[in-house]
């Protein structure tokens, strides 16, 4: 088992990463559970079917446990699901000594985390991530839901009390979800850990290469990058923005395609990272040859350019509406070289030109 500690200004919490560690949850959580009155497991229908009863059975000798599920998918990060969950908290009689377990991917982590952040002005919660992407979402304390007018517009910072990452649950994860989550790992490597990046490039030639025992090592290293950034900038006033590498174009691609699953988050981020690297070259910020990077991402079947069915103007309009744009200015995280990111505000005309060129391949 691997372990890390996440430090924030007023709290620190452990992240445990191991195969079948759900069974050890009572030991790992130890005294944290001693004064807890009740547990509510929040999950989605897919994950609950696979692991809901198991987690319930494991916790039940310690405290009363109930489970509530929402349908799987981004659609559940909604006001309607949030209301349903808070109603369940009230009906189950949860109090400030109760604990919520978020069992699932990023959708459940964000939704259950936000419920925990706001129910009775905040109760503790434990993240139990079951997707690869959730290595990113389960650490750092950002929780929230979507509004019909935009993604993640409603939320709160609320750090979990612990993260239990049972990599055994990943065995049932579909391939496309592995690929989507792996893009965020690559992102962490690019922005802060060139040695990790080198190691990934040497060792991961296909997605099958990450589905090995090495996954726990990858997770630890990738979470360590996120942890370090969050420690420096818990509330996204500065360097936390670097985690947005690949996301300016990535979010625009997802938004323009209507979040209908045509492109996964990781694929959109991969195309966005390549574009940001090309942009870094074009603007004279970097001098490294990015073709090696492009070939590697291509070999993992990630898109390496913005699909040409969306006009550059449409993508730029989406970027301007992003909550990370300020006063309509579009910001990109660029790289001088791996491990040396910077935030750059770019002129719209130049961006149209570069994006159109990029789409021509
Ligand atoms: P997800 O939670 O929707 O999971 C993807 C799919 O995999 C779902 O259908 C789910 O039912 C299924 N699944 C989950 N675990 C499984 C398992 N072990 N076996 C089989 N199927 C399984 O999506 P995600 O990609 O994990 O997370 C995406 C969400 O995370 C987005 O809403 C995004 O905004 C959010 N996010 C948040 C942060 C943050 O810092 N809070 C960071 C990144 C992403
Ligand atoms: Mg992301």
Number of helices: 13
Query: How much beta, percentage-wise?
Result: 15-25%
Principal-axes geometry comes out as globular
Averaged pLDDT: 94
What class would the helix/strand composition place it in? alpha/beta
> Which ligands occur here?
nicotinamide-adenine-dinucleotide, magnesium ion
Number of strands: 11
- Sketch the topology as an H/E string, one letter per element: EEHEHEHEHEHEEEHHHHHHHEEH
Q: How much helix, percentage-wise, in residues?
A: 40-55%
> What Rg, in angstroms, do the CA atoms define?
20 Å
Describe the protein in words.
The chain has 361 residues and is α/β, with parallel strands linked by helices. The protein is 43% helix and 20% strand. It is built from 13 helices and 11 strands. The chain has helices at 25-29, 45-59, 79-91, 106-118, 134-137, 175-192, 194-203, 215-232, 247-256, 265-282, 291-299, 312-321, 348-359, and strands at residues 2-8, 11-18, 39-44, 65-70, 99-104, 125-129, 142-147, 150-157, 162-166, 330-337, 340-346. It has a 7-stranded mixed beta sheet, with helices on both faces. A hairpin with a 2-residue loop joins strand 7 (142-147) and strand 8. The model has no long low-confidence stretch (mean pLDDT 94). Bound molecules: nicotinamide-adenine-dinucleotide and magnesium ion. The site of nicotinamide-adenine-dinucleotide has 29 residues, from helix 2, helix 4, helix 5 and helix 6.
Write a concise keyword list for the protein shown above.
globular; single chain; alpha/beta; binds magnesium ion; binds nicotinamide-adenine-dinucleotide; 361 residues; 11 strands; two-stranded antiparallel ribbon
């Amino acid at each position: 088992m691997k372990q890390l500690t996440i430090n924030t200004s007023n709290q620190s919490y452990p992240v445990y990463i191991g195969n079948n560690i759900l069974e050890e949850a009572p030991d790992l959580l130890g005294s944290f559970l001693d004064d807890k009155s009740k547990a509510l497991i929040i999950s989605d229908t897919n994950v609950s079917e696979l692991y809901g009863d198991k987690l319930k059975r494991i916790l039940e000798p310690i405290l009363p446990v109930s489970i509530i599920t929402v349908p799987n998918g981004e659609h559940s990060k909604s006001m309607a699901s949030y209301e349903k969950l808070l109603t369940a908290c009230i009906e189950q009689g949860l109090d400030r000594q109760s604990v919520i377990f978020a069992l699932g991917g990023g959708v459940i982590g964000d939704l259950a985390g936000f419920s925990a952040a706001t129910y009775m002005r905040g109760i503790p919660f434990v993240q139990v991530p079951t997707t690869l992407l959730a290595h990113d979402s389960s650490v750092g304390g950002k929780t929230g839901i979507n509004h019909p007018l935009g993604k993640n517009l409603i939320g709160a910072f609320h750090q979990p009390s612990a993260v239990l990452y049972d990599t055994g649950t990943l065995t049932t994860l579909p391939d496309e979800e592995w690929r989507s989550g792996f893009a965020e790992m690559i992102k962490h490597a690019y922005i802060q850990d060139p040695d990790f990046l080198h190691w990934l490039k040497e060792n991961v030639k296909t997605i099958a290469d990450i589905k090995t025992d090495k996954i726990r090592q990858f997770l630890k290293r990738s979470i360590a990058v996120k942890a370090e950034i969050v420690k420096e900038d818990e509330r996204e006033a500065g360097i936390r923005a670097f985690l947005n590498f690949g996301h300016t174009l990535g979010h625009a691609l997802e938004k323009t395609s209507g979040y209908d699953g045509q492109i996964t988050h990781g694929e959109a981020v991969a195309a966005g990272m390549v574009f940001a690297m090309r942009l870094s070259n074009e603007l004279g910020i970097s001098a490294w040859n990015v073709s090696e990077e492009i070939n590697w991402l291509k070999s993992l079947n990630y898109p390496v350019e913005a699909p040409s069915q969306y006009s550059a103007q449409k993508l730029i309009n989406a970027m301007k509406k992003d909550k990370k744009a300020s006063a309509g200015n579009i910001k990109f995280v660029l790289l001088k070289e791996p491990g040396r990111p910077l935030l750059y505000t770019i002129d719209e005309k130049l961006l149209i030109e570069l994006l159109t060129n990029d789409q021509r391949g």
